[in-house]
Amino acid sequence: MVALLVISLLFSLRPQRVSSTLPLQSLNQGSKDSATESAPKQDWNDAREVHCSRDRSRAAWKIIEEYLMPFVDKKKHKICTECRLHPDNDMFRDQEQHKTHLDFNDWKCGYCRKRSYEEKYLYQHFDNRHYDLLNVSRSKCMADLCGALHCDHVMDSVSQKSKCNPAAAARNKDMSEALADSCFPINEGASASHLHEFFLHQFCDAHTCSRKPKPFSRGRQRNANETTKC
Predict the structure, then answer these.
(1) Which residues make Cβ contacts (< 8 Å) with residue 198, sequence separation at least 6?
(2) Residue among 201, 209, 199, 213 at smallest CA distance from 171
C-alpha cells in the first residue's frame, strides 16, 4: 500500500508536456514577437496627411490676388512676411507656381515635367511625389483665413446660403480686424494707414448678419486701369 502511494506521488510530480495540438497562437501569446506581429501596420498615409484644405487655400489666395493685392501694389506697399497674407505663408504656393496649364487637357508638373490630363490628377501627383516640398507648419495654411476673407462667397458653398450665425460673424470680424492690424499697421505711414482702412471696408464690415454691406464692397482691380465693383 505504501509502495503504491509513493509511485502515485512520483507520477504527479513529473513535468507536464504541452500538447502539440494547441494552436500556435496560444503558444506565442504574450511574447514580444507575437505582440509585434499582431499589431496593425503603420499607415504611412496618415503620417503624411496635411490638415489644410487645398481648395479653400486656393479660394483664399484668389481673393487676396483679386480683391487686395492690386490695391496694395497701387500704393507701392510691401507686405512683410509676418503678415499671414504674405505669399510665403501659403504652404501650397510653391506647388501652384510649379503648375502649368498647357492645353485643355494638358497640365504639367514644373518639378519633374510629368503631364496630367486634369488638374486634380496633378494635385494628386504633388501629394504623392512632392509632398516633401510643402511647408506643413500650421501657420502656413491659408484656408485658416477663409472666415475672415469670405471664401464661401467666392466658392458658392452651402455655408453662404445657410442662416447667419452672429457668434461666427463676430469671430470672423475679429480675425479680419486682426489681419488689418498686423498687415497694415496704421503707425507705419500713410500707405499702410490707407490700406488698413481699405481692408476694414473691403473685408471686415461685411461680417454681420444684416447682409449689408456685402463682401468686397470696394470692388476688385483687374489691371492698373480698371476697377470693377461687385
Answers:
(1) 71, 218
(2) 209
For the whole model, what pTM was predicted?
Answer: 0.70
Q: How far apart are CA 158 and CA 156, in angstroms?
A: 7
Residues 172-218 have pLDDT tens digits of 999 999 999 999 999 999 999 999 999 999 999 999 998 778 899 99
Q: In what order do the strands lie in the sheet with 99-103?
A: 99-103, 106-109, 115-116
Instruction: Kindly report, residue by residue over 34-44, the tens digit of the pLDDT.
Output: 333 333 333 33
Q: Where do the domains of the chain lie?
A: 51-92+134-228
Joined grid coordinates for residue 173: 470680424
Q: Which amino acid is at 50?
A: V
The β-bridge relationship of strands 220-223 and 226-228 is antiparallel
Q: Nearest 5 degrees, angle CA 106-CA 125-CA 104?
A: 15
CA dihedral 221, 222, 223, 224 (to 10 degrees): -10
> What is the per-residue pLDDT across 97-150, written as a single tens digit (0 to 9) for each?
888 889 988 999 988 988 998 888 898 888 888 888 776 765 689 999 999 999
Contact status, residue 151 vs residue 160, Cβ threshold 8 Å: no
